[in-house]
Design goal:
The protein starts with a helix and ends with a helix. The protein has one domain. With 131 residues, it is mainly alpha-helical. The chain is elongated, with a radius of gyration of 15 Å. The protein contains 5 helices and 3 strands, in the order ααααβββα. α4 packs antiparallel against α5 (119-129). Strands 2-1-3 form a 3-stranded antiparallel beta sheet, with no helix packed on it.
Length: 131
């Protein structure tokens, strides 16, 4: 599955002229592997957003790509999942934008009705991490 995602991601990013986005998006995708299989995978949602951008670019070549991506990316259902890491001292929610992938290996997963982190934080991550 990983290989297919990487190939599809590379194709989608090449189509929108942003192959440099691959590394941060792959690293982020690794944090969402605990989402239950019967729910939509982060990787699937991400690819859908990228392909929709490719379609939008066909209509408007001057589309502010990163801004539109940030808006759509912040709306992914995957952001409603919560990853909680329990230690002897505390139970902490992991921020998928900041925690390292290894922290997610034994996290408990639940779902909420709102995004975590907040949508404005997700949009800022896009602005800060995608060239």
């Amino acid at each position: 599955m990983k290989t297919n995602f990487h190939k599809s991601l590379a194709i989608a990013l090449e189509q929108i002229g942003k192959p440099e986005w691959a590394e941060p998006l792959i690293e982020l995708e690794q944090r969402f592997h605990l989402i239950p299989k019967d729910d939509i995978a982060f990787s699937t949602e991400l690819l859908e957003v990228l392909w929709s951008l490719q379609d939008a670019l066909k209509t408007d070549a001057n589309l502010p790509l990163k801004q539109v991506f940030a808006i759509r990316f912040a709306k992914l259902d995957a952001w409603t999942f919560r990853f909680r890491k329990t230690t002897d001292a505390s139970k902490d929610y992991l921020n998928p934008l900041a925690a390292v992938p290894a922290d997610f290996s034994r996290a408990e997963v639940s779902q909420s009705g709102t995004a975590f982190p907040a949508e404005d934080i997700i949009k800022r991550w896009v602005r800060d991490h995608l060239a």
